[in-house]
Design a protein that fits this description.
408 residues; alpha/beta; VC0802-like; 2 domains; nine-stranded mixed beta sheet; 14 helices; 37% helix; binds adenosine-5'-triphosphate; binds magnesium ion
Length: 408
Amino acid sequence: MYERILVRYGELTLKGKNKHLFVAKVVELIKSKLTGLNVTIDKRHDRLYIELNQELEVEVIKRLNRVSGLHSYSLITKCNVDIDEIATIAIEMIKPKIKEDIVTFKVETKRADKSYPLTSQQLSPKIASKILRTIPNLKVDVHNPSLTLFVEVREDGAYIYIDQIKGMGGYPVGIGGKALLLLSGGIDSPVAGYLAMKQGIEIECVHFESTPMTSIESVQKTIDLVEKLSIFAPHNKIKLHMVPFEPIHSSIMTSIPESYLVTIMRRMMYRIATDLLKKTKSLAIVNGESIGQVASQTLESMACATEVTNALIIRPLATYDKSDIMSIARTIETLDISNRPFEDCCTVYLPNNPTIRPSLKLANNFEKMFDYQPMIKQAVDKTVTIQVSAYDHTDILGKGLTVEECFE
Ligand code: ATP
Ligand code: MG
């Protein structure tokens, strides 16, 4: 029944050059997400049409839902510019929406083809009266209708639609620069990465892996999470930097009092991530922290952890409830992966009484107990980088190799 999809861009508060950049990026993303489908893209001034050419609209919409920066879509049926034909299609579209109650509606006509003899004001009531005659439970309300029938009169025909399907919103990924996402195997950090991309930030992922202290399955879990995130990324690919963290992890476990284990671990992670910022030409660090969720996510703990870096830190989930985070995780299909029962470096040997108010002075004193500088340098130097692709699964399980060997 549907012939094409009308796509509206988001955030049109942008002006001038920024708007051009925004539109160019969105169009590039749409093209990359629709690769392989036989659709035609018809770019207009502030919107875009996708001619379906027999492709299924559900498939196209599923793909469009992966494009950040899109405001909404409408499914369009096309017919001749003929009032009877338009009314017939409109009735077919509206009927399923009407139950027993009276529904208010209006017809909004736009005449893009100025050679057509009737004006919009003349066309709308003519179409409306034909519809009203067939569907008695409709009542016209031009000021506050609950249903609007849109008719666009164009040279190649009349375009008819009623619904707006909500898009992902936000900004096209990549327009906001690049950041490093600290990705653990938990529920929160993948969601944080998704929200950062939705806001226009391109991401590369950093995972601190403690194999063989932690299992190789936890590394596979991280790869699988990045695979899910890369569905939203430009070109459907994201880089994953795997930092060998075991030597630092072990030293912390033997040298640092239990209540400060997590605090010191965090500080080491930030030191490494800060070095990786320069290497990857990234502008910020994104993490999955949510204020108050656990001991290491009090303001005092966060402040103590980030004391070691000048980097800009973005916490998309800072004020989110766990249930809202989980619902996003479900939508982006990371929840089941995060729930796989493998430990990462922060869940293995968790202390019973982590401090919620770490002191900077103590943290600094404890760190003097082991010579961490060369270890940080080594971790950065030995970091392995892989490209994870949404449509090309990376499987490292069952190879019996170390992480480094897996990617040599
Ligand atoms: P998540 O669900 O994302 O693991 P969490 O609530 O379990 O979050 P923590 O384990 O305290 O919280 O970690 C807080 C943040 O620190 C994570 O969201 C992530 O950004 C970062 N982080 C923790 N562990 C790692 C790791 N092994 N590699 C990379 N980043 C990590
Ligand atoms: Mg975690």
